[in-house]
Amino acid sequence: MVNAPDPFDFLHRKLEQILLAQANFSNTLMDIANRTTHLENQISLPPPPLSSHKSMKLNLPSFDNIDPLGWIFKVNHVRNVG
């Protein structure tokens, strides 16, 4: 004669699996919370003020209203070389 599976044994095993999954999930959430706190507490330096950046002065030729294409060529040359 074959014994029928005990329904309470089945439910007990499933409950253990659920509790284990819940504990793993809780640990994962705690790890995420700890990492988030760590990231929030890191000191981040603000970018330097814009006035501290060195600006580069370009000596561009002045436009004489005669040769616009030649002037554009010269400006592009100064920009690419400078």
- What is the beta-strand fraction? under 5%
| General shape | rod-shaped
Distance between the termini: 96 Å
Tally of DSSP β-strands: 0
Structural class: mainly alpha
Low-confidence stretches: none
- Largest sheet descriptor: none
Count of runs of 4 or more consecutive helical residues: 2
Explain this structure.
There is one protein chain. With 82 residues, the protein is mostly helical. Helix content is 60%, strand content 0%. The chain contains two helices and no strands. It has helices at residues 7-41, 68-81. It is rod-shaped, with a radius of gyration of 36 Å. It starts with 6 loop residues before the first helix and ends with a helix.
Strand and helix layout:
Layout: H1 7-41, H2 68-81
